[in-house]
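A reminder before we start the practical. When you read a complex entry, don't treat the lines as separate problems. The point of joint prediction is that each chain is placed relative to the others, so the output describes one connected object in space. Small molecules and nucleic acid strands, if listed, are placed in the same frame. In the example below there are two entries. Take a minute to note the order of the lines before looking further.
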Amino acid sequence: MASDKSTGWTATAFYRWLLVAPLAFVGLFFLWPILNVILRSFTDPSLGVVNYERVFGGGPYLKVLWITVETAGIVTILCALIAYPVAYVISRVRGSMMSLMMAFVVVSLWTSVVIRSYAWMVVFQRKGVLNQFLIAADIVERPISFLPGTLAVNVGMVHIMLPFMLLPMLATMRTIDRTLIAAAEVMGANPFVAFRKVFFPLSLPGLGAGAALVFMMSLGFFITPALLGGPRHMMAAVLIEQQANRLLDWGLASALSTVLLLLTTSIYLVYLRVMKSAGGGFAHGR
Amino acid sequence: MTEQGAELKLSGVEKRYGKVEALRPTDLELERGEFFSLIGPSGSGKTTLLGAVAGFTPPTRGRIEVDGVDMAALPPYKREIGMVFQNYALFPHLTVFENIAFPLRLRKLPESEIRSRVMQMLETVRLPDVGGRMPTQLSGGQQQRIALARAAVYGPRILLMDEPLGALDKNLREEMQFEIKEFHAKVGATVLYVTHDQDEAAAMSDRIAIMRQGGIVQLGTPRELYEHPLNEFAACFLGNANLLEVVRETGRSGDYVEVETPAGPVRAIHEGKDASIGNQVLCVRPESISIEPEDAAIGSVSTGANRLSGRIADATFTAGSFRYVVDVEGTTPIAVRLTSIRQSEMLKPGDRVALQWTADATLMIPKE
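Here is the predicted structure of the whole assembly.
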């Protein structure tokens, strides 16, 4: 013990020193750039709120922001509707069947977003799989122009976001004690009522976490809308890239980024608040 | 709420999973308002039997009648049965009040009646002030009392209890045994109780069925099972038993039989059983053996009593009794439990002792 003190080497001190490197890294490559962006939105090209006036002054920028929020909302709702039943089924099976189903979910994460977005281009293009099918089935006479377009962006994003909705849902559903359902049934609840009054409310924390995750990721999503959306369905991240890289209007790009950052942060705070008040009693129970 | 319990009758109830027989064809009859326990090791079929009555594990064959109406084919939610689970199964997202109100809301009772019934139930389990709390804010014993209240609030005439005290510590378990008995007296339902704790079953039940390998081994009042176990398994499952090998029968007079054991000659009651085939074993309860230092015992040999001498291998004091393990030549160590310990001094390991017990306390039962 005494020798420990004389060398000044305690485990706590050691762990504290270990933190320095990651903190420095995050500070230098994450916090500093963000601060820089926020700063620049007020200073470039001149001190003031000129950039924000341009963003909120009506016109194309506000519309892009609205499309972004709308798309994120639609994608979140569609993901929730698709993922919930899938997660429910996976949470009910056990053993190797579950591993197999989980593998199907996780495998889609192994393929790059770029490749998956290109795959959707193949499906949606003028002579793509979908158009060929529609023509062959005599549903349409001439190929429909899906690309670039809203439908393609929504479908592509739902596909990419699905695992992020599904995994938190699954994690929550797997912790729901099945004897609770049995108890509800003995007391007179048929399976549908037992689901609605017991299983569904208990699965809400997972649904909430998945929805918050998907919505926040969708707000800043770039690749899929860039590839499938084009000017007709432009989202914020694509617009920011255009302003920063092609038009070199860094001030406007910074202002748009700051707005997006604020939006995401406030949604996260709302989510925390809602989860706290809704789940206070049981979210951290057994 | 204090409706009479229903009559529960199982005939030929059987559960198979492919070739595995989880429950052999079983008949069972519970009287109105009876407290009936199923005991047995895990995998003995007691939970399967309970699941069949609850409706979770529909039987492969057989009838389950409540007051003469067969419900073997009904789903759980149409059976009007109450059930208490081992882990309480309280809904974590609802308050205690809403937990108890749950079955009443399903039955669409008016709000005022729900209110009064829940409050009355909370009074019954002596937790009148916890209605607004969440279940996780209660202790284990309190949660189990709420589970009892919830299972009985809609007046089911049969209450199933699946090891309800399994998750509680020993002292609380004994307190809750009393609470459940009292609760049973108040609500009057017929109770089918599953446990693996023999003492718990003996203390609470009107009758007990000992189960093993998917079937009932023996059924009777706790006292019948203790005093007249049908076989070695039943003898060892309810209470403890010393078992003495039977080498051969040497004589018979009246109700008694003289038997040679590896430890010496022993007299037992035969109850009409024949030891000559060699498939019998003698059973002596640790509580029916008296123990004395060997030198002091010489004068006090009562005629007709069985007597063995040995050396104490282990002596333990437990609250209320001395437990001895005595090495006796020729047989496995014999356990002795002395419950009237007020005057006696505790013997030490190594002491030579004389063990005595009456022929009436020596049962001859089929060997496993």
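Discuss with your neighbour: Chain B has a mean pLDDT of 87. What might explain this?
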